[in-house]
Amino acid sequence: MKKSVFSLVLAVVVGATAFATTPIKVEKKEVKTSESTVTWKGYKVTGSHYGTINLKEGALMFDGDKLTGGEFVVDMTSLISTDLEGESKGKLEGHLKSDDFFGTSNNPTSKLVFTTVKASGKNSYQVTGDLTIKGKTNSIMFDVSVYGNKATATMKVDRSKYDVKYGSGSFFDNLGDKTIYDEFDLVVDLAF
């Protein structure tokens, strides 16, 4: 009896030591912000607007060639419209940066931190992350594809969860054709 208890304890200690000496090797790959793009598109009853916003910094984490994490900071003050020109462009950009929308003077950055990453196919991952906009953090799910030193992601963001209420049918009645839909799209192309 003593011999089998001793053998069991020895097996547990050896097994625990084997796990302790095989750490996961996580490699952090910095994103090349000048070669990466974030494109946004917002929708309203009468059409849509689209543009870009710059990454301030970011990194993806890998174990070998497997994506395991990521963290990004977006420069909200860089938000521009690419579908308009002249006075209309300036008005839209100013309004989007105002407190009616993203309040960039008080909230110059937004942040995304991956919380879970699950492989969903070859080079494909389902990611859950914490997205912070205007100081409010909510969970978001999206897909990421990784090929070599490039990654792409497409996500839908519900602005109403981040206190961006202007023109939202979720908060205001009888807006008619002035209604701006709560969800907007982000398409992210990363180089690292």
Automatic annotation (TrEMBL):
InterPro entries: Lipid/polyisoprenoid-bd_YceI, TTHA0802/YceI-like_sf. Keywords: Signal. Residues 28-191 form the Lipid/polyisoprenoid-binding YceI-like domain. It holds the Pfam family YceI. Residues 1-18 form the signal peptide. Gene3D superfamilies: Lipid/polyisoprenoid-binding, YceI-like. This is YceI family protein.
